[in-house]
Write a structure and sequence with these properties.
Elements: E1 45-47, E2 50-52, E3 62-70, E4 91-93, E5 102-107, E6 113-120, E7 128-133, H1 134-140, E8 148-154, E9 172-179, H2 182-194, E10 201-207, E11 210-220, H3 223-233, E12 241-243
Parallel strand pairs: 3-7, 4-6
Antiparallel strand pairs: 1-2, 3-8, 4-7, 5-6, 5-8, 9-11, 9-12, 10-11
């Protein structure tokens, strides 16, 4: 895997600087798959010691969060699905949506929308859920601000088949959210406990100088167990996902 990029600097002359998300510029290798073949659209990948398991279907996906954008530092390089990144085109990176997913992105601050394809992985910074190409950011009016609140709605109904194999000793964690405000994390933690998730926990991490409170619904020995929990939580926590 290529190294993650450093935070982008603002380039006044070119006006091409993004808001500095850490990013995966090329297809990451599956980790510990024991020779199992995964569909390339949903293949697990590892970043900063954490393995992410993309959703097997984007059907019904609807998410609100922060979107950043990336530009010149990756222009002409390979994206996670093997395409050549064109910063002037319309595309985006997402941590867990299947590669190739078509989504509608709405800038909730000015109601502009754009339809694009997820062709890369990222961003891995704070609470950002989407990393827009420069071209997509221009259409949404987010270039100058760098980060904006958006809604991501899947237009894809395809169910992607895959084969999974559990690795002895590996635990699968269902992550519900990361909160800068501890009281918000405590509220979600209490909610999970009240719903019967006795293994729910909170861990604190320092991410780029910001203390985040990570809430997990629990840890499980098999991927199937973790997926059942994730699916049960999707209605209330649509952005929850599995890591190991």
């Amino acid at each position: 895997m290529r190294h993650l990029a450093a935070l982008f600097a603002i380039s006044v002359l070119l006006a091409l600087a993004g808001c500095g998300p850490k990013h995966v510029p090329s297809t990451p290798p599956a980790s510990g798959d024991g020779g199992v073949r995964f569909d390339p659209k949903t293949r697990p990948y590892t970043v900063l010691g954490k393995t992410y398991y993309p959703l097997q279907s984007a059907s019904g996906y609807d998410e609100i969060g922060l979107a950043s954008w990336y530009g010149a530092d990756f222009h002409g390089r390979k994206t996670a699905n093997g395409q050549t990144y064109n910063m002037y085109g319309v595309s985006a990176a997402h941590k867990t949506l299947p590669l190739g997913t078509r989504v509608r992105v709405t800038n909730l601050e000015n109601d502009r929308t754009v339809v694009l394809t997820i062709n890369d992985r990222g961003p891995f910074v704070n609470e950002r859920i989407l990393d827009l190409s420069y071209g997509a950011a221009r259409k949404l009016g987010t270039v100058e601000r760098g980060v904006a609140k958006v809604r991501v709605t899947s237009l894809t109904t395809e169910v992607v088949p895959t084969r999974l194999k559990d690795t002895p000793g590996r635990l699968y964690h269902v992550r519900v959210g990361a909160f800068a405000v501890r009281d918000n994390a405590l509220r979600v933690h209490r909610q999970l406990l009240a719903s019967g998730y006795s293994g729910a926990n909170i861990t604190v991490v320092d991410r780029d100088g910001q203390m985040l409170h990570i809430v997990q619904a629990g840890s499980f020995k098999t991927r199937d167990q973790a997926e059942r929990v994730m699916e049960a939580l999707k209605r209330e926590f649509p952005t929850c996902y599995i890591i190991s």
